[in-house]
Amino acid sequence: MIEPIFERDSFAFKGGAPTVYTLPSDGSGKDINVHFCEKCGTKLALTFERWPDRIGIYVGTLDDPVSIEPTKENSKHIFASEARPGTILPPGFKIFDRHATENDGTPIEPTVHSTPYVVENW
Q1: Is the confidence at residue 1, as pLDDT, over 80?
Q2: C-alpha to C-alpha distance for 13 and 85, rounded to whole angstroms
Q3: Which of 78, 84, 92, 96 gives 20 to 30 Å between its CA and that of 71?
Q4: Belongs to which family (predicted)?
């Protein structure tokens, strides 16, 4: 899933606010808010108790999804430990087994491979 993150104050939904379902994160225990269309159930965005000033948008819901180009500078792969076997992660990108920070906000050192990395097991 590609999920560009935006400043929450600079983002707005057209046509009204989506419905929100809240659940605790398995990792941090803090709330994750899943914003979705009440009519069709499509997930639109995520907001987080850990980062109240951010909103993550499911890229496939954007009018022009290809306008968000993932690069080594603006992207990272999180929850790689949960990727399906055979998933190929590109070289040069930051990879994290789960989150990129500890619960207290301390950064976690990423793994960066110089060649494509194939996830072996689940």
Answers
A1: no
A2: 36
A3: 84
A4: Belongs to the Gfa family.
pLDDT for the residue 122? 59
73 to 38, 43, 69, 79, 103: CA distances (angstroms): 35, 26, 11, 18, 23
Assigned token pair, 118: 């194939």
Give the pLDDT confidence of 32-49 residue by residue, as tens digits.
999 999 999 999 999 999
Q: What is the pTM for the complete model shown?
A: 0.79
CA-to-CA distance for 20 and 6, rounded, in angstroms?
18
- Could you give the 3-state DSSP secondary structure of residue 42? coil
Q: Which two tokens stand for residue 44?
A: 């639109």
Contact in structure between 40 and 93 (CB atoms under 8 Å) = no
pLDDT value at 103 more than 70:
yes
| H/E stretch holding 103 | none
Residues 101 and 104: their CA atoms lie apart, in Å, by: 8
54, containing H or E segment: strand 54-57
